[in-house]
Structure formats: structure tokens, C-alpha cells
Amino acid sequence: MEHITLLIGIVIVTALVFDFTNGFHDTANAMATTISTGALQPKIAVAMSASLNLVGAFLSVEVAKTISGGIIDESAGIRPEVIFAGLVGAIVWNLLTWLAGLPSSSSHALFGGLIGATLVSVGTDGVHGGAVVMKVLIPAVAAPIVAGIASMAATRLTYRLARNRDEQETAKGYRAGQIASAALVSLAHGTNDAQKTMGVITLALITGGVVAPHADPPLWVIASAGLAIALGTYLGGWRIIRTMGKGITDIQPPQGFAAQTGAAATILASSHLGFALSTTQVCSGSVMGSGLGRKGGVGRWSTAVRMVVAWCLTLPAAGLVSAGAALLADQGDWGVAAVAILALGVCGAIFAASRRKPIDHTHVNEAPEPAGVVTAALQTVTPPPAGQTVPAQEAAGAITPANGAGAPRAKTASLTS
Predict the structure, then answer these.
(1) Which of 207-221, 333-347, 361-375 is predicted most confidently?
(2) Axis-axis angle for helices 42-56, 219-235 (nearest 10)
(3) What is the spatial distance between Cα 316 and Cα 297, in angstroms, rounded to a whole number?
(4) Domains of the chain: which residue ranges?
(5) What angle do CA 312, 314, 316 make, to 5 degrees?
(6) Is 368 within 8 Å of 246 (Cβ atoms)?
(7) pLDDT tens across 234-267, in order?
(8) How far is CA 226 from the centre of its chain?
């Protein structure tokens, strides 16, 4: 019993570490557009998001139930070692994509890790395939598309309604709206992502016989998961904030408001239904939709393609890492210790690599990559955004002359092919 108690303690700590990485990995979901448009200062934005993530963690437990008793069958012989291996795979993938500045899904990393470890240790009987399809895979495909279409329509409607209004006056109102909608996204993120860690800890407690099967997460589990994700959010995943705020499209205040409102509505609806969808994919889809919705907007498609590739790889990649960890952890105490040492070594190496080119709040609004040839050509033939003339664009720095010649080139913060 002492061995089980110690192992459950290790699983709980590892789950909270994952929750912490989830926080700084997903800060961009709520605050990237708000920071990129200047509606809030970076440090103020992440502090507000962290507080609301903590509040959101107490509002619902439906997603936690999906994790603890929906995707994985706790009665199929799931042991704490399996959950530990699944969390290791999720953490490693989270840190790798954070290092690359890619807003991949922390949720799918967790699902992939748990599924991969369970398949190796227990077999197919330990995974509810129907729940995986209905509550993970289908929302993964549908949610970003729905959010993107909604944000595109909202952006077009927003610009149409404000076409005869002074741009500077409306920008103030949209910035205030962005702050409110960003707060709603942060609250929604707490109701969805914080619960995933609650579900994992509850699953570990069930496998160890500490709580009854199908039980709700205890209060201390809810509080600890909420605090862990809030702390990670406050530290700020500046690499991913920069990619989402400046790397997908050039966000203006009306677009930011439309994107965040659409994302918040989608996340809250899914939390109510118990769909453990990826808030990252929803928010990224909303940002891309808002870019397409603005007249004259052009997407930075090279970044978008890399994001989609990361989305597709997340489940299998985290699953493979967790499968290997599960094989090693199944060997006994020394195997669990070996997995822990290897995980610490990999995480340390990733952190050391990130220090070579650190990114923080002081330069988070720099473009992550230079403009491409295709985008430069598109900028020369695409009409400017509604209410803005070409000279105004030049004054704002959106198009500047290259090498003293008359040929235009895109600013680094503009859109890349």
C-alpha cells in the first residue's frame, strides 16, 4: 500500500506539472490578440488571464468526468504507472512545441499520451474507442472550422457596421471589447483545460482505490489544478503568444474582438456538453477566420501549415513517447525511476535550448519570421482594409519602399506565404 501511495503521489505531482505547462502553453489562446493589438500590456494581460483561469476551474466538472471515466476504462486494469507514462509523453510534446513556438494542443497531447500508454500496458480494452471518436476526434476537426467560420463572418459584419465611422474612435471601443472577450476566453479555458488535469488526478485516485469509480474530483484536486494552470498562465508562453498574435495574420482590434468572442462561445458550449476539445485549435481557427474576414487581409500560410502539421502529429507523437515510457515503467520501480530521470533530462535540454534565443514580454510583438515573396506580391494587388487608404498603410508601416525603389515590400509584421 505504501508503494501505491508513493506512486500516486508521483502521478499527482506529474499531473500538476503537466497542468503548469498547459497554462503557459495556452496563454496565447486568450491573450495573443489582445497583446498584439495593444489593448492590454503583456504582463497585465497574463495576470488577468491567470486569475480567470483559476475561477473557471471551479465552474464545472463535466470535462473532468470525460477524462476520468470516458476515454480510459478505469476498470480495465489501469495502474498509476500507466497514467504516469501518459503524462510524461504529454509534457515532452508540450515543451517541444513550445520551443518551436507552435500553438499545438495540450489537450490532444494528454489524450495521445494516455491512449498510447494504455494500449501498451492494457491493450485495446482499456480505451473507449467510441468516446475517443465522439468526444475527441470529431470536435478536433469540427471546432476550429466552426470557430473560424464564425469569426470570419463576425469580422466581416463588424467592418461593415463600422465602415462609415471614424477608425480611431471605433478602435477604442473594440479594444475595450477585446479585454472583455479575452476575459471570457480565459474563464472558458479554466472550465475546459484545468479540468483535464483534474480528471487525470481523479483517475489516478480511482486506480489506487482512494476514491470510488465515477466519483467527481475532490475539492483539493480542483483547487490544486486551478492553481497550477493559473501559475503557468501568469508566467506567459511568450513564444506561442508571438506566433498566434503576429505569425498567423496581422490582427486589428475589430478582428481581435470577433476572434475572441467566437472562440469563447465555442469553448463554453463544449465544456457544457463535456467535449474535451482543444482550446488551442479553436482559438487558432478563430484567428485565421478573422484574418480571412478582413478585406485586404492575407494569411501567413507557412505558419498556418506548420500549425496544422503539429496538430496532426500531436496525438500519435505523444502516444509514441508515452508508449515507450509505459514499456519501461512496466518493468517495476527501477523502470518508473528511469522514466522520471529521462523525462527530467529531456525537459532540461529543451529549457536550455530555449535560453539561446529567449523571448519575453518586452519583444513578444515582433514578427516571428520575415515576409515572403508571395505575400509581398499579394500586398501590392490586394485592396487595403476597409476605411484605410494606401497612403495610410504606408504611414502605418504596413508597406514600405525597398532599397529606395518604388517597389513595395511587406513589413516584417505583415503576412507571410
Answers:
(1) 333-347
(2) 170
(3) 34
(4) 2-354, 373-410
(5) 90
(6) yes
(7) 886 788 888 777 767 777 778 778 888 878 777 7
(8) 16
